[in-house]
Design goal:
Blueprint: E1 5-11, E2 18-19, E3 28-35, E4 41-48, E5 59-61, E6 66-70, E7 88-95, E8 100-107
Length: 114
Amino acid sequence: STNLIDYASITAQSGVTDDVGVQPSDNCHTIVVYNTTADTGVLVGIVPTGTNLTAANSATIPGGGSLTLRIGTRVYRPCGPIGTTGNVRLRVEGIGGTPVLSFQYINSAQDTAP
């Protein structure tokens, strides 16, 4: 992306792992996720396409909580590119409800280590 910050949001479905509609770009080095729903947790993970989220391959964000993922730009990621140019996706799943998540993708003009 040519923007320094990109945004996305999604309503996570309970018990269903979904891709975030807007995936981080190759020059995204940090993802900030905010769970805007006070009483419902969510799983968030970067996993291979089609993989369901579990406690072992994702992070749990409690209701009203946030998570900052320092992923480094594409050249520093062990998983390689994320989204349409790669075989891994940023995915979410609600825990017992349908939380609304807000994403900020912080991008760099150059390669940035995690």
